Every structure is written in structure tokens, then in C-alpha cells.
Backbone:
């Protein structure tokens, strides 16, 4: 087993303590962790799922744009953050394991270090929870 | 590989009648490789005695700094070989986006904190950022990796022949994490310590003291024992003793550490407290242990 870089370890430690859904990918775009809050949103705990390859996790839970079309993988904030090394924000719908749709806002930012990129973190918020989805 | 402990204390030197046996000097470990090359791990006040013991030898030595907290660099300006023109010293340490290793160390080795400036040191001194990949010094392979502490901090792994030394003096792997439950690759520092012949690890606090020091960058006794068990180290030395701990208190802490180690299934003699002046000759890893899965 290869040791995870410290920055990912610390990110996971922080995310584990948050009640906001949060996702962590490594520098290769592999989904290496999401927290309990994210698990509740998706209807599946990370421990049940395990790590998911870079081209697979995008399609696991949608996501869909306003017209219900799947959003291309390349445009997901987490992918933009890890590939381009810059922050990204979007709102979209995801579907959980039981088929329920959730509209969320997602902010992703890269984890950059003296030795280059380590990966990226995305944090989700429920979108328009009090005011509908019309933003 | 031979290892000698020149300073085992953390935070601040703590000389006095109550710290004679475990010592009052701050972090410094001397390592003699199989070809006779010399490394110093950290340059706390313990490096002063290491320098005095080196006499005019060797001509070249490497100092591997884990980080730049004062208890790990304070001895640099009192290291006799640095004041000999024929000595070549290579200082390795963590990179930082803010300034070079040389410039960060020069903040200490400069007025008004120091009577000399880096450029005035008579020796041939160079500064290198530790690479991410393994590198070689003499017959040894050296690996450095960031570990959980405060500020950019490295742990080291030195492999020479079949013996290996892991040095992680300032380390809080349990911060926000459960060492006993986490997968191995998610535990800070474990990749450095795995199956080490000798692990020198932070053991600053008792379990009772730790709750008041969460996030200070150090380990409790239980965390250190758990880490050593997960790493399957052959032998572990608890290091970076709290300056408040007397010899009598450290005796008690050592006893508790050995008990916990044995309870956790560790082998007899696999856990002890680091004492200034102690020397270890690292054997090749035992065949039985090496073959265990
Ligand atoms: Zn220290
Ligand atoms: Zn420190």
C-alpha cells in the first residue's frame, strides 16, 4: 500500500469532522474519500463503496443539469479543480442510490503543495433549500 | 548502522538534577552508516556534544532536519565542525513556499539572535530541500515525507543494507484520526515507519496530559504505542520527552509504555524510552519478523 500524502490525510481528517458533505480526490482524480454527510446525501457510505476510478465516480450519482441532461465529466467542479489547479463552482442535481434527486451547489478547490498538486476537495450545499431551485 | 542519541528532550533544553538519566538536551541523533559516513538527525542542543565527539573527523557530514522549530536547530551555531574550514556540511530540510531552507535557517543564524551569520561559517555548508523521491547518501537510501505536526515537518527513513531507521520525533498522527481503526495508508508517517528495525517516535505526553494538548503536534503514550504496533517496528524508542517530565516520571511512563506494548501483542524488549547517550547497533531485520505478513 502506498502512503497517502499528508495533505490528503489531513483533508480527510478535517472532512471526517464536518457535517457538510465533502469529497476528496487524489492527484490522479481517483475518489479516495467522502465523509458521512456525503454518504447520507448519496445513500451509500464511503466504506461500502471504496475508492472509485477517475472516470467512474462522475457517473455514479448523476449529476444532471437544469434540464436533466447529464453533465459532462470534464465540467464537474472537482474535475476542473484537480485537472486545472483552480477553484470551480457549480450547481446541479445528483441522484442518490434510492433514486431521489437532490439539487446542490458544489465548490471545489485544488490541494497544491510545494511538490505540486495532491488532489482536490469538493464541498456540497443543498441548493435553494428555502427558495426553490430557481437561481 | 549505528545510532547514538545525543539529545532526546523536546521543546526546550531541561538540564538539572531531575533529568540526568534521560538527559536535558534537545533532539539530535547521530547515525553512522555501514561505510562510516556520518549523519545527524536534527540539530537540537544535543548536536553540540556530537560535534565535540567528532574531533577533526569526518570531512563531510549530512544534517537531516525534520523542521525548523528551535529545539531542532538550536545547536547549529554550537556545532564545532561548522567552524572548521575543512568540513563540508550538507543540511537537508523541508521545502516551504515562503522562503528557501537557507533563508529560513538564517533567521536564527543571524543578528541579533546569533553572533555569527551563515555566510561567516568557516565550513563549506550547503542547504538542500528534501526531494519527494528517495535519494542516496553513501550506502544508505533516504526517504523524507511530510508528517502531521505544526508547520512543514518531515519524518525520515534510512535504509542501509537490511537495517532501517525511522525518525519521527515531532508527530501527532492521532489528530482527528483513530490510529487503531484507519487503513494503514491513511496514517501519517506510517509509510516511513513500516517494519523499521528501529523507530524513534514522539512520545511527549502521558495519556492524561494529551487532552490539554490536542493539536500541539505531539503524541500521547497510547498514540505512540498504537502507531508503533501498526508500523510493526521491531523496536521503538519514545522520544522528545516533555521538559516537565523528571527521570522518575519518565521511568513510570516507560513502564506504562511497555505494558501497553505487551498488551497490544508487542514483543518483549520492543518498546523503551530514549535516553541521552544510549547507543544502538541496528541488526538486519529478524528473518521471522520479515517473513511475517
Ligand atoms: Zn520538537
Ligand atoms: Zn516541533
Residues:
Amino acid at each position: 500500500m502506498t502512503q497517502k500524502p499528508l495533505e490528503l490525510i489531513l483533508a480527510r481528517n478535517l472532512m471526517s469532522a464536518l457535517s457538510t458533505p465533502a469529497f476528496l480526490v487524489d492527484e490522479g482524480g481517483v475518489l479516495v474519500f467522502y465523509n458521512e454527510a456525503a454518504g447520507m446525501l448519496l445513500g451509500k457510505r464511503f466504506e461500502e463503496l471504496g475508492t472509485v476510478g477517475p472516470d467512474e465516480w462522475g457517473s455514479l450519482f448523476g449529476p444532471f443539469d437544469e434540464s436533466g441532461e447529464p453533465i459532462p465529466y470534464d465540467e464537474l467542479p472537482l474535475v476542473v479543480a484537480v485537472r486545472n489547479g483552480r477553484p470551480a463552482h457549480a450547481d446541479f442535481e445528483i441522484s442518490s442510490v434510492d433514486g431521489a434527486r437532490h439539487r446542490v451547489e458544489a465548490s471545489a478547490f485544488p490541494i497544491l503543495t510545494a511538490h505540486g498538486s495532491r488532489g482536490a476537495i469538493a464541498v456540497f450545499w443543498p441548493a435553494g433549500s428555502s427558495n426553490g431551485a430557481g437561481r | 548502522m549505528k545510532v547514538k542519541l545525543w539529545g532526546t528532550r523536546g521543546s526546550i533544553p531541561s538540564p538539572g538534577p531531575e533529568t540526568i538519566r534521560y538527559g536535558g538536551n534537545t533532539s539530535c541523533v547521530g547515525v553512522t552508516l555501514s561505510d562510516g559516513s556520518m549523519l545527524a538527525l536534527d540539530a537540537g542542543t544535543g548536536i553540540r556534544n556530537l560535534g565535540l565527539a567528532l574531533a577533526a573527523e569526518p570531512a563531510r557530514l549530512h544534517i537531516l532536519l525534520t523542521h525548523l522549530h528551535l529545539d531542532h536547530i538550536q545547536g547549529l551555531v554550537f556545532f564545532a565542525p561548522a567552524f572548521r574550514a575543512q568540513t563540508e556540511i550538507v543540511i537537508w530540510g523541508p521545502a516551504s513556499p515562503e522562503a528557501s531552507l537557507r533563508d529560513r535557517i538564517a533567521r536564527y543564524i543571524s543578528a541579533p539572535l546569533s553572533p555569527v551569520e551563515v555566510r561567516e561559517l568557516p565550513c563549506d555548508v550547503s542547504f538542500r530541500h528534501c526531494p519527494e523521491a528517495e535519494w542516496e547518501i553513501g550506502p544508505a537510501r533516504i526517504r523524507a515525507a511530510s508528517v502531521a505536526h505544526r508547520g512543514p515537518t518531515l519524518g525520515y527513513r534510512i535504509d542501509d543494507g537490511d537495517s532501517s531507521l525511522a525518525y519521527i520525533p515531532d508527530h501527532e498522527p492521532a489528530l482527528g484520526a483513530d490510529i487503531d481503526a484507519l487503513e494503514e495508508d491513511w496514517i501519517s508517517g506510517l509509510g516511513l515507519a513500516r517494519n523499521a528495525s528501529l523507530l524513534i517516535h514522539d512520545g511527549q505526553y502521558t495519556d492524561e496530559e494529551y487532552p490539554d494538548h490536542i493539536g500541539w503536534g505531539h503524541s500521547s503514550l497510547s498514540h505512540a504505542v498504537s502507531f508503533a504496533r501498526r508500523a510493526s517496528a521491531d523496536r521503538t524508542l519514545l522520544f522528545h520527552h516533555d521538559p516537565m517530565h523528571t527521570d522518575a516520571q519518565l521511568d513510570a511512563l516507560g513502564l506504562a509504555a511497555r505494558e501497553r506494548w505487551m498488551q497490544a501483542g508487542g514483543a518483549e524488549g520492543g518498546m523503551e524510552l530514549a535516553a541521552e547517550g544510549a547507543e544502538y547497533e541496528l541488526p538486519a531485520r529478524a528473518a521471522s519478523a520479515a517473513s511475517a505478513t
